């Protein structure tokens, strides 16, 4: 079961073109394409006649034509042509998914179209700020359930063991974590004081010596994450509203997990930084390094998926699981409430 009345990432903007393409979100096959004006369109990827995927058909103007018998549909899913007959039955119409382009991504609403509100799309601060740089990479397939990734993104401590050559070091092992539930998700965070700068960040911080470091790991329902990393000279941390201007480093990492099905997730990501905004070498270094680190997560989570599926003994939870467990409980309540509302309306 998934939360449906919410926005998921369907694709990068550049992946949606005038050629019909099949994607899968929440186990549903969807055809995406663009109108002549460049607007994204998403329809269920099945002709109602013999269920040939419409992604096997062709685009004609702003319509999509089935490649088997020519049934044709507009961007709202309305069937506008059935070759060989004048009357078009209402049952020929198909489901259209609300879609919006934002932050270089195409977002899709998987629930009741009447409830789709573009203002509820995740807000990315500094996205168009010329004083902040951005780097991104290709969407990554993770062969695991999306909740194992949200577990990982609510666990700052894992960087000490999984990312020893990049995001983590010994300072990340023992410092206590603060867990807070919000209306939109869960935040796990901490400040670490007078610590060595972790390997990945050494090329990025605008100061020498030890640092105070903030780890802010926030996941919003159902699977959207904002990870903030701050490094400031030792003795100047603890208050994000009073950091030394021009002497601290901040990286905001945005991570959007789209469930393909129960065992597969598509992972979209980019980072925004407050240093070297227009430096392409810095952007490449960050993209390459982040992708390397995310592949370290991927390798671990592949084995977690297998291990949890094939377990012969009970797994345990420990103190650092407080954030992930709180997130899962609250998300399940949202899913259950949504499902009850659907059943009551039927």
CATH class membership of the largest domain = Alpha Beta
Classify the secondary structure makeup into a structural class. Answer: alpha+beta
Q: Which architecture of the largest domain per CATH? A: Alpha-Beta Complex
**What is the domain total for the residues?**
2
The whole-angstrom Rg is 23 Å
Helix content: 10-25%
Mean pLDDT: 95
Enumerate how many helices there are, as a single number. 4
Strand residue content: 25-35%
What's this entry about, in short?
The protein has 346 residues and is an alpha+beta fold. Helix content is 19%, strand content 31%.
Report what the structure shows.
The protein is an alpha+beta fold and 346 residues long. It has two domains: 114 residues, Rieske [2Fe-2S] iron-sulphur domain (Rieske Iron-sulfur Protein), CATH 2.102.10; 200 residues, Alpha-Beta Complex (Naphthalene 1,2-dioxygenase Alpha Subunit, Chain A, domain 1), CATH 3.90.380. The chain is built from four helices and 18 strands. The strands form four sheets. Strands 11, 12, 13, 14, 15, 16, 17 and 18 form an eight-stranded antiparallel sheet that branches. A four-stranded antiparallel sheet has the order 5-6-7-8, with no helix packed on it. Strands 1-10-9 form a three-stranded antiparallel sheet, with no helix packed on it. Helix 1 packs antiparallel against helix 4. The longest helix has 30 residues. The chain is globular. The mean pLDDT is 95.
């Amino acid at each position: 079961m998934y939360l449906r009345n919410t926005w998921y990432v369907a694709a990068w903007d550049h992946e949606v073109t005038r050629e019909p393409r099949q994607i899968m979100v929440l186990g549903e096959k969807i055809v995406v394409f663009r109108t002549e004006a460049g607007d994204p369109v998403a329809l269920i990827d099945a002709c109602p006649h013999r269920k040939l995927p419409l992604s096997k058909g062709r685009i004609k103007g702003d319509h999509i034509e089935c490649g088997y018998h020519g049934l044709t549909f507009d961007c709202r899913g309305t069937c506008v042509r059935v070759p060989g007959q004048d009357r078009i039955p209402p049952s020929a119409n198909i489901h259209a998914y609300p879609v919006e382009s934002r932050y270089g991504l195409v977002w899709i609403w998987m629930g009741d179209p009447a409830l789709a509100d573009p203002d509820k799309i995740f807000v990315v601060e500094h996205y168009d700020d010329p004083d902040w740089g951005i780097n991104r990479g290709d969407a990554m397939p993770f062969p695991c359930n999306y909740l194992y990734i949200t577990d990982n993104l609510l666990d700052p401590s894992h960087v000490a063991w999984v990312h020893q050559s990049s995001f983590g070091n010994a300072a990340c092992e023992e410092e206590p974590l603060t867990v807070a539930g919000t209306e939109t998700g869960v935040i796990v965070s901490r400040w670490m004081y007078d610590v060595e700068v972790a390997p990945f960040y050494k090329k990025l911080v605008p100061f020498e010596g030890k640092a105070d470091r903030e780890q802010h790991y926030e996941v919003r329902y159902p699977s959207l994450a904002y990870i903030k990393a701050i490094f400031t000279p030792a003795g100047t941390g603890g208050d994000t509203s009073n950091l030394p201007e021009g002497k601290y480093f901040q990286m905001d990492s945005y991570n959007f997990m789209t469930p393909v099905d129960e065992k597969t997730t598509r992972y979209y990501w980019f980072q925004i930084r407050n240093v070297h905004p227009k430096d392409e070498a810095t952007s490449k270094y960050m993209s390459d390094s982040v992708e390397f680190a995310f592949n370290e997560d991927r390798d671990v989570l592949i084995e977690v998926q297998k291990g949890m599926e094939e377990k012969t003994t009970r797994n345990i939870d420990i103190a650092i699981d407080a954030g992930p467990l709180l997130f899962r409980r609250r998300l399940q309540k949202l899913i259950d409430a949504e499902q009850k509302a659907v059943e009551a309306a039927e």
